[in-house]
């Protein structure tokens, strides 16, 4: 055996030992609690740095856009250039900065519009707006009717991390005009600030426009249709709702009762009982819902949970009747209407999913 062959053999032997050691260490670290905890912390720090970097870049760009918008407005007021200079400005900037986006004539016009939209408000509005991605800003200033409504959607986007698609849906469904408008007794049945937060959680009306349902339908049909579109249903309910079950069975001293829909709200830290009625509100509906909320408090609620709340969603309501009905109810209850625009004639009723299919879809959403 030559010296070269002997040397190669030793190198390979050392490499095998190192690989064996690394493999053994890898297996050991998979179960080492201290390593796992440190790795989790490290990953969290890296993600935080990535997010902060992205936010910083976005903020810097929007601050530049703000200054650019102010400059464009000033030049158009104090020079004779008019609107025509934007074509030249766009061409000159894109020629110089070919690797950058955002200098098209259309985008320069949007930058001017964005600046003009927010410049009439205080500095807080600008600070909020510059925390969002640019095209979220474009959607809001293009669709919101005024600055107050725009600020509402800016805050909601930042709170809930809405995508552009979700933001568009919320504006087009009129969330600004619907949120917190349900009739409730929360101010007398819940402590602050939970009462305010719970009130803002409810809408009136709920827009179930994503449903296609036959003209004559009952509560079961409505439940089926909502759960067949569970993702859109949860989106309409709002962030924080975690689905627990439909026709949720509770037993009280041998008597069975079934709740239409049961949720847990992770922000309110409480159970939410939802009852659906396909008819106009009747005072006795509030009494039944009060009973269900009381039962959930007694059966499921723990010391860590806040008081359960009830939401009654009905086809229509007389607001004065609702106010009287809730006046002496001691459990927190809100009453809202719902709207559906897509209805099928009776002879074209779609085949509805089975309970098993609904449960399978819900399990898929949870994974």
Secondary-structure blueprint:
Layout: H1 3-30, H2 33-78, H3 85-96, H4 105-119, H5 123-129, H6 134-143, H7 147-160, H8 164-172, H9 175-178, E1 183-184, H10 186-189, H11 194-201, E2 206-207, E3 213-214, H12 219-228, H13 230-237, E4 241-252, E5 255-265, E6 270-280, H14 283-299, E7 309-316, H15 319-327, E8 333-339, E9 343-344, H16 355-366
Parallel strand pairs: 2-8, 3-9, 6-7, 7-8
Antiparallel strand pairs: 1-8, 4-5, 5-6
Structure description:
There is one protein chain. This protein is of the alpha/beta class and 367 residues long. It folds into two domains: 132 residues, no CATH class; 184 residues, Trna Endonuclease, Chain: A, domain 1 (3-Layer(aba) Sandwich). Helices cover 58% and strands 16% of the residues. A hairpin with a 2-residue loop joins β4 and β5. 25% of the residues are buried.
> What is the name of the CATH topology of the largest domain?
Trna Endonuclease, Chain: A, domain 1
Strand content: 15-25%
CATH architecture designation of the largest domain: 3-Layer(aba) Sandwich
**Rounded radius of gyration (Å):** 29 Å
In round numbers, the mean pLDDT is: 84
Query: How many structural domains in the coordinates?
Result: 2
Give a quick account of the main beta sheet: strands, pairing sense, barrel closure.
Answer: 7 strands, mixed
CATH class bucket of the largest domain: Alpha Beta
What is the number of strand segments? Answer: 9
Q: Give the helix/strand class.
A: alpha/beta
SSE order in H/E notation? HHHHHHHHHEHHEEHHEEEHEHEEH
């Amino acid at each position: 055996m030559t010296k070269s062959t002997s040397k190669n053999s030793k190198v390979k032997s050392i490499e095998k030992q190192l690989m064996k050691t690394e493999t053994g260490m890898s297996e050991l670290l998979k179960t080492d609690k201290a390593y796992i905890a440190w790795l989790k912390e490290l990953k969290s720090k890296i993600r935080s740095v990535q997010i902060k970097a992205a936010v910083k870049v976005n903020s810097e760009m929007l601050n530049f856009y703000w200054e650019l918008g102010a400059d464009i407005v000033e030049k158009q007021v104090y020079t004779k250039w008019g609107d025509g200079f934007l074509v030249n400005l766009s061409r000159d900037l894109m020629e110089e900065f070919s690797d950058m986006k955002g200098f098209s004539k259309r985008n320069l016009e949007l930058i001017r519009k964005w600046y003009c939209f927010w410049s009439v408000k205080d500095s807080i509005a600008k600070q909020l707006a510059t925390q969002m991605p640019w095209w979220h800003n474009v959607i809001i200033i293009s669709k919101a009717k005024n600055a107050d409504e725009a600020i509402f959607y800016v805050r909601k986007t930042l709170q809930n991390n809405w995508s552009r698609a979700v933001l568009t849906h919320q504006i087009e469904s009129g969330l600004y005009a619907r949120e917190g408008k349900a009739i409730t007794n929360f101010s007398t049945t819940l402590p602050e600030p939970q009462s305010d937060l719970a009130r803002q959680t409810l809408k009136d009306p709920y827009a179930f426009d994503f449903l296609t349902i036959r003209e004559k339908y009952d509560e079961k049909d409505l439940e089926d249709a909502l759960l067949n579109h569970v993702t859109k249903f949860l989106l309409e309910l709002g962030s924080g709702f975690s689905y627990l079950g439909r026709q949720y069975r509770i037993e009280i001293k041998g008597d069975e009762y079934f709740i239409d829909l049961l949720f847990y709200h992770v922000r309110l830290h409480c159970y939410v009982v939802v009852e659906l009625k396909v008819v106009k509100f009747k005072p006795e509906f509030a009494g039944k819902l009060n009973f269900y909320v009381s039962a959930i408090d007694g059966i499921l609620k723990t010391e860590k949970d806040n008081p359960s709340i009830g939401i009654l969603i009905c086809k229509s309501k007389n607001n004065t009747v609702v106010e009287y009905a809730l006046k002496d109810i001691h459990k927190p209850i809100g009453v809202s209407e719902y709207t559906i625009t897509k209805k099928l004639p009776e002879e074209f009723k779609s085949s509805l999913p089975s309970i098993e299919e609904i449960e399978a879809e819900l399990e898929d959403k949870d994974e």
